[in-house]
Structure formats: structure tokens, C-alpha cells
Design a protein that fits this description.
four-stranded mixed sheet; globular
Length: 174
């Protein structure tokens, strides 16, 4: 397990306040029950940037998140897969939704499709079979540390976004 380090990696998207209403403090928010969970490599700079991008564009808060290095991710995967299946999963982006566990290009396209206009147009790439899409995804995933770098530890979300992260309450592993 990697150490978790509380840094302000994930800044809360700006929330517009209408008619003088006060923003909801994180401790006042209702517990989330998102049916879609994005698992990501918590030390990968590209994966972290992708999560920040989804947070900015997920206006309906359809997704929750967890780093693949966390117990929360392992528990969520264990509900759907055996230990052998979990062991062979790719270590980049994984989507868990009501229809199961999705990896590689399928996960990315399903995420984009859920974000609405104009991102749902990415679904046009579903017309290509995974045997065409996935090699491109694997090529990027294989080179992501070299191209974008990586962190030594998983970074925790800000308090404003902790309720969107299943592993946001996990204590640091030392």
C-alpha cells in the first residue's frame, strides 16, 4: 500500500450561489450514493488530471472516485470480481457502474458519454471495436509515467470534495 498524503490536489469546482443562498459546507452534505465509481491510479499525474477534469465537468455528480491503491477500491471491486480477476485488471482508469466493471477505452468512453454535451459525442468511438480502441489506450497507459510523471504518494482530495471520494476518509498508511 502507498502512503496517502493530504494535499490540495483536487480543488472544488466553483459553485455558483443564487439568490444569496449559502454554499453547503462539506460536513452538511448528504452522504453520496453514486452508482458509478471511477477508480484511478492515485500516483499517476495523467490519471489525477483526468479525475480533476471529470470533477469539473460532472455537473450532475454522477461519479464517485477512489484511487486503485485504496482499500475502498479493492472492496468495491471485490463486489464484482474474484481476487484472480482483480489481480489482472489494468492499473489506470476503471469504471464500475450498474452494468459491471469497465476498463481501458470502454471505461473512458462510458465516462465521457455520461458527462453530457458535448462530451457524449465521444460515444461515436464505440463504433470501433475494442480490438482497435484498446491498443491505443494501452499505448498511452504504458507511457503515462514517462510522459506525465508520477507522485510518490497518493494525494487526498480537499475537504470540499472528500464526499466524492470513497477513500477520502481513509487514514494515511505509514
Amino acid at each position: 500500500m502507498l502512503n496517502f498524503q493530504p494535499l490540495a490536489l483536487f480543488a472544488a469546482p466553483e459553485r455558483r450561489v443564487r439568490n444569496g443562498e449559502e454554499p453547503i459546507a462539506p460536513q452538511q452534505r448528504k452522504p453520496r450514493t453514486a452508482q458509478k465509481v471511477i477508480l484511478f491510479d492515485g500516483v499517476c499525474n495523467l490519471c489525477n488530471a483526468s479525475v480533476r477534469w471529470v470533477l469539473r465537468h460532472d455537473h450532475k455528480q454522477r461519479f464517485d472516485f477512489a484511487s486503485l491503491q485504496s482499500e475502498a477500491a479493492h472492496e468495491r471491486l471485490a463486489h464484482h470480481l474474484s481476487e484472480e480477476e482483480i489481480a489482472i485488471l489494468p492499473d489506470s482508469i476503471i469504471l464500475i457502474d450498474e452494468s459491471g466493471v469497465h476498463t481501458q477505452s470502454t471505461a473512458v468512453l462510458k465516462i465521457a458519454k455520461e458527462l453530457g454535451f458535448p462530451y457524449f459525442f465521444a460515444a461515436v468511438f464505440f463504433t470501433l471495436p475494442p480490438c482497435v480502441r484498446d491498443p491505443i489506450y494501452r499505448w498511452i497507459a504504458r507511457n503515462r509515467y514517462r510522459w506525465f510523471g508520477q507522485q510518490d504518494t497518493c494525494l487526498l482530495p480537499t475537504p470540499e470534495l472528500a464526499d466524492r471520494f470513497l477513500d477520502g476518509q481513509e487514514p494515511p498508511n505509514v
